[in-house]
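Dear H.,

Thanks for agreeing to be a second pair of eyes. The structure we're designing against is below in C-alpha cell form, covering all 309 positions.
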C-alpha cells in the first residue's frame, strides 16, 4: 500500500516537471515569436517609409520633368514664331515625355533617377542654345524690319515723287491744251445783195442780204499742232435757234452735241491764218442780233455778231 502511494507521488512529481518544462518552452516560443513579429513590423514600417519617401521623390522628379517639358515647349513656340527650328529641342521634349511616362508606370524609379537628372541637364543646355538662337533670330528680324521700313519709306518717297511728277505733267498738259486752243479774231460780216454788191457794217436790211461772207483771222499759235483744222461756224438767231446748213451737220462741244450752220478747213502752220467763209441762207433772216460762233477741236475759239433790221 505504501509502495503504491509512493509511486503515485512520484508520477505526480514527474508530471509537474513536465508541465514546468512545457511552460518554459511555450514561454520561449512566444518570446521568439514576439521578437520575430516585432522585427517584421519594424521592417514593414521601414518599407512603408521608404515607399512614401520614394513616391515623394518620384513625384518631385515628375514635376521637375513636367516643368522642363513646358519650358522647352515654350522655347520651341518662340523659336517657331521667330522663324527658326531646333530638331534637338524637339527630340529632347519627346525624350522627356517618354521618360516621364516610364517613371509614372515603373515602381522601380531609382534606376531611372540618374537618367532623369541627366536628361534634365541636357534639356537645360538645349534650352540655352535655343534661347540664344531666338535672340539672334529676333535681332535678325528687327534688322530686316528696319530694312523693310527704310525700303517702304523709299517707295513712299518715290510714289510721292511720281505723283508730284504726274500732277506736274497733268498741269503742264492742261496748260499746253489751253495754250494750244486756237483763237479767232476780228470776226466781221460782209452782206452781199442779189446784185452782188458788198456792204461792210454792223447792221443790214434783211431784204438787202442775199449772201453773207464771214471774215476772221486765226491767231498765231506756236503750241498748237500744225495740221488741217476743221472750223465749225454757227449763226444763232435772236430767238436762240441755230440756223442749220443744208447738211444739218453736228459736232462735239465738250459733252454737248451742237449743230453748225457751215464749216471750212484750213491748213494751220502756227502763223496768223486769214479765213473767209461764204454762206447763203434759205429764206430771210429774222430781225435782230445774229450771233456768230467759231469752234475748232471742241473749243469755242471766237464769236462776233451782226444786226438785221
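And this is the sequence the design step returned. I haven't edited it by hand at all.
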Amino acid at each position: 500500500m505504501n509502495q503504491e502511494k509512493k509511486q503515485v507521488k512520484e508520477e505526480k512529481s514527474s508530471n509537474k516537471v513536465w508541465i514546468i518544462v512545457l511552460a518554459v518552452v511555450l514561454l520561449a516560443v512566444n518570446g521568439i515569436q514576439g521578437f520575430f513579429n516585432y522585427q517584421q513590423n519594424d521592417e514593414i514600417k521601414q518599407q512603408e517609409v521608404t515607399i512614401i519617401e520614394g513616391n515623394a521623390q518620384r513625384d518631385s522628379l515628375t514635376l521637375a520633368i513636367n516643368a522642363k517639358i513646358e519650358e522647352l515647349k515654350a522655347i520651341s513656340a518662340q523659336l517657331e514664331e521667330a522663324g527658326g527650328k531646333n530638331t534637338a529641342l524637339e527630340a529632347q521634349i519627346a525624350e522627356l515625355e517618354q521618360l516621364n511616362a516610364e517613371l509614372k508606370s515603373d515602381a522601380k524609379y531609382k534606376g531611372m533617377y540618374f537618367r532623369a537628372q541627366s536628361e534634365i541637364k541636357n534639356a537645360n543646355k538645349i534650352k540655352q542654345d535655343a534661347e540664344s538662337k531666338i535672340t539672334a533670330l529676333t535681332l535678325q528680324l528687327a534688322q530686316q524690319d528696319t530694312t523693310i521700313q527704310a525700303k517702304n519709306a523709299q517707295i513712299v518717297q518715290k510714289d510721292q515723287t511720281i505723283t508730284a511728277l504726274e500732277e506736274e505733267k497733268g498741269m503742264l498738259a492742261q496748260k499746253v491744251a489751253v495754250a494750244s486752243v486756237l483763237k479767232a479774231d476780228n470776226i466781221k460780216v460782209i452782206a452781199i445783195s442779189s446784185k452782188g454788191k458788198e456792204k461792210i457794217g454792223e447792221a443790214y436790211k434783211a431784204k438787202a442780204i442775199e449772201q453773207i461772207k464771214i471774215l476772221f483771222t486765226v491767231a498765231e499759235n506756236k503750241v498748237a499742232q500744225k495740221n488741217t483744222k476743221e472750223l465749225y461756224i454757227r449763226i444763232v438767231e435772236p430767238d436762240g435757234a441755230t440756223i442749220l446748213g443744208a447738211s444739218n451737220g453736228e459736232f462735239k462741244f465738250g459733252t454737248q452735241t451742237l449743230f453748225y450752220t457751215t464749216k471750212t478747213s484750213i491748213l494751220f502752220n502756227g502763223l496768223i491764218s486769214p479765213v473767209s467763209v461764204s454762206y447763203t441762207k434759205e429764206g430771210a433772216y429774222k430781225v435782230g442780233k445774229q450771233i456768230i460762233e467759231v469752234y475748232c477741236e471742241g473749243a469755242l475759239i471766237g464769236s462776233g455778231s451782226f444786226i438785221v433790221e
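Two observations from my side: The two ends are 204 Å apart (CA to CA). DSSP finds three helices and eleven strands in the chain.

Warmly,
E.
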